[in-house]
Amino acid sequence: MTAKKKAKQVQTEIIENAHQIWLAGLGAVATAGEEGSKLFKNLVEKGENFEKAGKDRVEQARGAVTGVKVVAESYWETFERTLDDKVTGVIHRMGVPTKDEIDVLTERVEALTAAIEKLRTKETPKPGPSAAAAKKTATAKKPAAAKKPAPQAK
Fold first, then answer.
1. N or C: the chain end with fewer CB closer than 10 Å?
2. 137 to each of 127, 130, 131, how far by Cα in Å?
3. CA–CA separation, 113 vs 105, rounded Å?
4. Using one digit for the tens of pLDDT, what is the confidence trace for 76-120?
5. Where in the chain are the domains?
């Protein structure tokens, strides 16, 4: 082979290699586009799954917190009732009446006061000329002193 042929052959090989490198670059860009799109879709799917799992965990935590809250409220109500019962017991032992007992007594006092007022209005005559006349007739009607019979001799 001649030097010219060899140079042409090397030149053709270089052109073919350069073309293949060019095609490989285009293939890399195309693959990156395809794979990038697939990678993007894959990342979106993973993100959605991660978000859903996070929301599920948050809901589980909410449920647990709600359960703990209900239990705590129940214990607190029990504590309040027990404390109220104990304080009420101490107050009764000291002789202090409860609000209900005071309310009942107040109602009874009010009823008695109303009954007394009713009786007072019935018994109290109205002042005026008839009261003075009634007084005069009462004194006039008094029987005369009965005379004692004289002692008899025996």
1. C
2. 16, 11, 10
3. 12
4. 999 999 998 988 888 888 888 888 889 999 999 999 999 999 998
5. 3-123
